[in-house]
UniProtKB/TrEMBL annotation:
The gene is fmodb. This is Fibromodulin. The keyword Glycoprotein applies. Residues 1-18 form the signal peptide. GO terms for cellular component: extracellular space. InterPro entries: Leu-rich_rpt, Leu-rich_rpt_typical-subtyp, LRR_dom_sf, LRRNT, SLRP. It comes from the Eukaryota. Binds to type I and type II collagen. Belongs to the small leucine-rich proteoglycan (SLRP) family. SLRP class II subfamily. It comes from Parambassis ranga. The keyword Chaperone does not apply. Its main location: secreted. SUPFAM superfamilies: L domain-like (SSF52058). Keywords: Disulfide bond, Extracellular matrix, Glycoprotein, Leucine-rich repeat, Proteoglycan, Repeat, Secreted, Signal.
């Protein structure tokens, strides 16, 4: 695990190393390595454009070097870093010998869906993470291996998700689809038995996706066009803990009563909507964001149906600023019910 973390830091986080090379320095570095390579058996099949340090014999570093094509990946490589290049296509076959690949990192390139071969990823039976964010994809790549647990497709131009896109991906735990132009998803997430996190911020959704997987804990839907929440939304998804719906078009009419009064919920973000009332929430809720709505009254009953010494809300964070109420609208009994809230932002 430690090695994996180190690889991650070298390959992704520590971009400063590669950025320090000017193009010219880069060339002399290449030449130096070439002479040296005969000493290093592993490096022999390392493509010239990349680095395969002997300290990390299963990693191949090819990031930030103006590449337009994916170099041939040798069969012993498990982790390939290709981010921040100008790669526009992936032809069928480039990964054919690299069936041990576990991570493929391709974010910040210029990949378009029409230029990705139909079966480029399908033979990678060990693929665990596939990072394709910040590209120009208009579709989810077809035939993704079922072994993937972390799939990143954010910041692309995906508008539609075909019904079979995620079929059989029973090990997928996190799915990033933020900053695309998706209007609707139908039931595409249904079979994702292991999915715990779904990020669909900054899309064009008009409703909450149907058939969300049962294990889902974190649902991020900020910056969409959602107007309402289905009545059974949280009772159907009993594991949800974090629900973020800020910057949508929610009104009181779109929220069935008690829809958020669910004991598993820890955080609920409804800020920057058009709510006029504080929705009823469970006593177990810890963070509630309601700033920048049109709330006109402070209803203590939304937090505690009865107020006594033993029955109180677990709320720690309550934001109500930029609404149409002020501190004098908060009744004195709020101090009993909301005893864990340090101060209420109004
Ligand atoms: C795959 O490996 C074989 C045997 O080492 C080699 O002949 C072939 O060129 C390789 N193919 C690719 C696409 O690298
Ligand atoms: C899914 O994960 C389980 C447990 O880690 C593993 O045994 C199984 O092979 C994985 N499935 C695929 C298709 O990789
Ligand atoms: C919220 O749900 C709890 C538990 O189901 C229930 O006791 C409580 O009365 C509900 N709150 C309101 C205001 O309906
Ligand atoms: C808290 O209030 C509910 C009704 O809202 C009641 O059923 C329950 O017994 C109370 N719990 C305690 C510990 O007083």
């Amino acid at each position: 695990m430690q090695t994996v973390v180190l690889l991650f830091m070298m390959g992704i986080l520590d971009l400063s190393i590669s950025q320090r090379y000017s193009q010219f320095q880069w060339l002399s570095h290449l030449r130096g390595r070439r002479q040296y390579a005969t000493w290093q058996a592993e490096e022999l099949d390392c493509p010239l454009e990349c680095d395969c340090p002997s300290a990390y014999p299963t990693a191949m570093y090819c990031h930030s070097r103006n590449l337009q094509h994916i170099p041939v990946v040798p069969s012993h490589i498990k982790y390939v870093y290709l981010q921040r290049n100008h790669i526009t296509s992936i032809q069928d076959g480039v990964f054919d010998n690299a069936t041990n690949l576990v991570w493929v990192v391709l974010f910040h390139n210029q990949l378009s869906s029409d230029k990705i071969g139909k079966n480029v990823f399908s033979k990678l039976k060990n693929l665990d993470r596939l990072f394709l964010d910040h590209n120009e994809l208009t579709r989810v790549p077809p035939n993704l291996p079922n072994s993937i647990t972390d799939l990143r497709l954010g910041h692309n131009r995906i508008s539609k998700i075909l019904s079979k896109s995620f079929e059989g991906m029973a090990n997928l735990t996190t799915l990033h689809l933020q900053a695309n132009v998706i209007e609707e998803v139908g039931g595409v997430f249904k079979g994702l038995k292991s999915l715990t996190m779904l990020d669909m911020r900054k899309n064009k959704l008009r409703k909450i996706p149907d058939n969300l997987p049962e294990r889902l804990q974190q649902l991020y839907l900020e910056f969409n066009n959602i107007e309402s929440v289905p009545a059974d939304f949280l009772t159907m998804h009993p594991k949800l803990q974090f629900v973020r719906l800020a910057h949508n078009k929610l009104t009181d009419k779109g929220l069935p009563s008690n829809v958020f009064n669910i004991s598993t919920l820890v955080e609920l973000d409804l800020s920057f909507n058009k709510l006029e009332k504080i929705p009823v929430v469970s006593r177990n809720l810890e963070n509630l964001y309601l700033q920048a709505n049109k709330i006109k009254e402070f209803s203590l009953g939304s937090f505690c149906s009865t107020v006594d010494m033993t029955n109180f809300s677990k709320l720690k964070m309550l934001r109500l600023d930029a609404n149409e109420i002020s501190a004098k609208d908060i009744p004195a009994e709020a101090a009993y019910c909301l005893r864990r809230v340090a101060f209420i932002d109004v």
